[in-house]
């Protein structure tokens, strides 16, 4: 959604702290949304920092980045987009804290964040008499701007989760719905709707769109995804972001923000070409890699099926028996054999009092469950939460400072019973 009048007058270029709104702006925004969320999950789950440490770390890094941004005298692309990625992470974490930790419903959190955003806009307008980002040229206006940006990410996360999870639409429908809403917003802008209104609506909608597109690439094929996995998707998105932000940096350095896309390197048509090239590259690489991973095998010798690993004969400790599956599922979650297999492995280790080995194997359960969340949760949110709580109990007992065999065994037995109950073809 490129606004021909969005750039500030050239006499104030040195005070402009935000980019011109062009095609590359929207592409980078969507990609930043996805990579921000993926990176936070990677730190919390794969690295093992946990949600609390990850939250504290990301808030600290965001504070440092915002200080850098606020101290600059003009738009500096790499600093600005670093802040956007970090705000995406923190905004998502705020919503997850309300939903997962405090147990606030997505309906309520969406309404609360909508009210907070409205309050930010009202206060901003009363103080500055404008909400246009072309006017972000004083410290106070920039403070309002970043406050609004953070709230839009929290609201976009809550609204997106509400649509894809609570309402059961799933990430595929979510991508179509939010993409369609953005298209309608662009049409409304072209038809004469206000620039400020359409910009902020589109900005909110890009958050759930980016998350849905990310899930489309990362989720298993059984869930309708391309099965690239979070690591490959993050690297792909990060590479495109680096290229587009580098171009932004070169143009801003040579010509200033007001003429970005209008200088000798190209015009707005060239800007659209760069943005489209980034999107096409992601689509092409995504489809290409997906076709090469019809039955991918992970490094621990398990095949990725239905969002998680399924034991391969002769691989691992070889102690897990075949998992019986019900002829009819008792939930819409579908095939949970992957998680039942790991749970059986863990039960064997705990029975043999190999709690250290169980702690290591539990990492596979945590990672595979987290990777499959976007595909499983929309199918049956209530049953997913029950399993999630039981998996958390297993992880907590195995990772205790002095784990007790009886506690670990009891939690694993409860989880295995639930998995067997919910599993089905």
From TrEMBL:
Record's signal peptide: none
Keyword entries, A-Z: Membrane, Transmembrane, Transmembrane helix
Alphabetized InterPro entries for the sequence: DUF347
Pfam family, one: DUF347
Transmembrane segments: 42-66, 78-98, 104-124, 144-163, 234-251, 272-292
Protein name per the record: Membrane-anchored protein
């Amino acid at each position: 959604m490129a606004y021909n009048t969005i750039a500030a007058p050239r006499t104030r270029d040195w005070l402009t702290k935000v980019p011109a709104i062009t095609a590359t702006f929207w592409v980078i925004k969507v990609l930043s949304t996805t990579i921000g969320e993926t990176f936070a999950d990677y730190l919390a789950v794969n690295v093992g920092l946990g949600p609390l440490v990850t939250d504290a770390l990301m808030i600290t890094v965001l504070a440092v980045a915002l200080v850098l941004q606020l101290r600059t005298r003009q738009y500096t692309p790499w600093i600005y987009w670093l802040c956007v990625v970090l705000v995406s992470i923190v905004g998502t974490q705020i919503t997850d804290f309300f939903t997962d930790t405090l147990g606030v419903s997505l309906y309520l959190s969406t309404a609360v964040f909508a009210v907070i955003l409205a309050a930010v806009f009202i206060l901003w307008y009363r103080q500055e008499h404008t909400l246009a980002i072309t006017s972000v040229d004083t410290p106070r206006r920039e403070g309002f701007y970043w406050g609004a940006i953070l709230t839009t990410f929290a609201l976009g996360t809550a609204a997106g989760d509400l649509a894809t999870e609570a309402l059961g639409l799933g990430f595929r429908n979510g991508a179509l719905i939010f993409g369609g809403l953005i298209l309608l917003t662009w049409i409304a802008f072209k038809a004469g709707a206000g620039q400020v209104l359409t910009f902020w609506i589109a900005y909110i909608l890009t958050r759930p769109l980016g998350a849905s597109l990310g899930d489309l690439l990362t989720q298993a094929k059984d869930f309708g995804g391309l099965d690239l996995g979070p690591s490959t998707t993050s690297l792909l998105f990060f590479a495109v972001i680096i290229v587009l932000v580098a171009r932004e940096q070169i143009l801003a350095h040579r010509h200033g923000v007001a003429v970005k896309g209008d200088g000798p390197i190209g015009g707005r048509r060239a800007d659209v070409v760069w943005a489209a090239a980034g999107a096409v590259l992601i689509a092409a690489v995504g489809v290409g890699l997906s076709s090469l991973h019809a039955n991918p095998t992970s490094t621990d010798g398990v095949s990725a099926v239905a969002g998680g690993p399924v034991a391969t004969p002769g691989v691992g400790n070889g102690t897990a028996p075949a998992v019986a599956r019900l002829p009819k599922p008792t939930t819409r979650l579908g095939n949970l054999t992957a998680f039942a297999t790991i749970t059986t492995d863990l039960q064997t280790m705990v029975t043999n009092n190999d709690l250290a080995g169980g702690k290591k194997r539990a990492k596979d359960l945590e990672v595979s469950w987290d990777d499959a969340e976007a595909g499983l949760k929309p199918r049956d949110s209530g049953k997913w939460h029950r399993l999630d709580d039981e998996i958390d109990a297993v992880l907590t007992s195995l990772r205790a400072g002095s784990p007790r065999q009886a506690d670990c065994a009891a939690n694993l037995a409860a989880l295995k019973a639930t998995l067997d109950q919910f599993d089905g073809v």
